[in-house]
Amino acid sequence: xxxxxxxxxxxxxFDESNIxxxxxxxxxxxxNNLKLAIFPSALAIREVIMAMENSAFSVGAQxxxxxxxxxxxxxISAQMFLNxxxxxxxxxxxxxxxxxxxTDEDVRKKLQACLEIGLTPVLCIGEKKEEKxxxxxxxxxxxxxxxLAGLDLKNKEILIAYEPVWAIGTxxxxxxxxxxxxxxxxxxxxxKYSGQEIPILYGGxxxxxxxxxxxxxxAIDGVLVGGASAKFETFVSIIKKVEEII
Length: 246
Ligand code: PEP
Fold this sequence. Notes:
By secondary structure, this protein is an alpha/beta fold. It has helices spanning 14-25, 45-52, 78-83, 94-98, 104-117, 129-133, 137-145, 176-190, 211-215, 232-245, and strands at residues 2-7, 34-39, 57-61, 88-91, 120-125, 159-162, 200-203, 222-225. It has 10 helices and 8 strands.
């Protein structure tokens, strides 16, 4: 099973999201060997979930609030996304951490909220360029993974996305062999927190031209695609490329 998840970020408005969702519905994908999911904006998620019902695609939220309900202007809770049919939620995406100032403690609370209600979190982790250059990659990833301590992961589904910050939206994708070494390291680190096998996706400037170099490596369970997932041709060509090797 390989995972191909598409984070549409804030690239598409309501109409554009529905147009892309409906275009994806016209295609046939290998549902037996692929796990496909899309992450539209909160504005479009309910329409997209309804359109994708009975399709190969699951739908997830890009961000959640850990509080269930209340005076939190502008926020949407994990529970509210679950109530409209979301299956997944991105938690700790680098843009949330570095543009919106989300802390590890925020990430921990979001993970906990998702796990408690049965929304599958995709915990996004990744080091900045300065951290990589100064040999602090593992220290950074170790700190970001430490939010898992104390969470009840038993029989819960959770995924990790390794997304080096310097590779996101830059065209400067991580060397696949290097990414695989990091995935191996993450797998070892995860043993501190869970006895279960946790899938790890690579994210950062994935496109049709390089996707095979990642998904053909055993420690890379799939990809989280940003920019290239928000356009029909580029997203479909990524999925078709992966279908050729599974
Ligand atoms: C992302 O936002 O998760 C991402 C990987 O972006 P991109 O593919 O555009 O680098």
